[in-house]
Amino acid sequence: MIEPSDIRITNYLKLNGKPVKLSAELMEQIREIQHELGPIPITPPHLSLLGFVYSGGNYYKSCGSVKVWVLKLKGDRFRVTIENSPWNRVIDYIHELQNIWYNLFQDELFRPAPSPVVQMPIHEHNEPLYAQWQKELQRIKDEERKLNGNRSKYQWQRLPSPTFREFKEKYLNSSKK
Q: The whole model's pTM is what?
């Protein structure tokens, strides 16, 4: 059971086992639903969803010039620390991390809205452009093998291979004609 004094509006919690973002409406009913609320344990996927970046076995997120690190401890525990500061706190749950973030920066820590999907150009064969590029690179390698025959790899004549950017520009320019 979570104490109402430990949570804030916008905290992520479990309500009847399902994840919810605590709203003002739910907060008004907190005394009635208190026994149905539970914490959400911190996991690496949750940290990624909250915008933390994986680095060297740990996670960090910046706010301005300040980096907040979340370090994995034994078991299911994590240590929150601020770069170049002796301050740290051991936590277990997402709402604790959200509350620390808010206390430090007066800003909410929540899952950012998904970025818009960038549609890759599609060839007339309904194949993504990057797949066509991979095929083109394979074609060039096969051509190099035929050209060089039994020569050692150090004597091979190399054929120019386009970068993805070059391939994309060539494709886009040819499709405009």
A: 0.63
